[in-house]
């Protein structure tokens, strides 16, 4: 399911992106594996997870962590392929 979300972080301008939700176990596990790079201004929202794996990824990503109120609490830029973070 695609949605449009507006994200903001203190001292930074807001940004609107097209978000695909991964809210099932299988959706979160498969994530972006073996997919083409996402178009500019789009992302994958991993619902109810606390870690990211980059196995079988074809491209680097920027990981944005949100709290329960969807406020940005952490950003990891240019996360390389074949990495695991939490």
User: In angstroms, what is the radius of gyration?
Assistant: 13 Å
> What is the rounded distance between the termini?
25 Å
Main β-sheet: number of strands, strand sense, barrel status?
3 strands, mixed
Roughly what percent helix? under 10%
Decide which structural class fits the backbone.
Answer: mainly beta
Number of strands: 7
Order of helices and strands: EEHEEEEE
Q: Which percent range describes the beta-strand content?
A: over 45%
- The dominant shape is globular
How many helical elements? Answer: 1
**Unreliable segments of 5+ consecutive residues:** none
Mean pLDDT: 86
Q: Strand sequence of the main sheet, in spatial order? A: 1-2-3
Task: Write the SSE topology.
Elements lengths: L1 E8 L2 E11 L2 H6 L11 E5 L5 E2 L7 E6 L5 E8 L4 E2 L1
List keywords for this structure.
86 residues, mainly beta, three-stranded mixed beta sheet, 7 strands, 7% helix, globular
């Amino acid at each position: 399911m695609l949605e449009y979300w507006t994200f903001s972080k203190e001292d930074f301008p807001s940004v609107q992106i097209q978000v695909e939700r991964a809210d099932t176990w299988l959706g979160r596990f498969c994530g972006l594996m073996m997919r083409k790079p996402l178009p500019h201004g789009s992302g994958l929202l991993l619902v109810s997870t606390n870690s990211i794996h980059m196995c079988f990824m074809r491209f680097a990503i920027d990981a944005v962590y949100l709290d329960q109120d969807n406020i940005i609490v952490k950003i990891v830029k240019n996360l390389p392929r074949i990495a695991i973070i939490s």
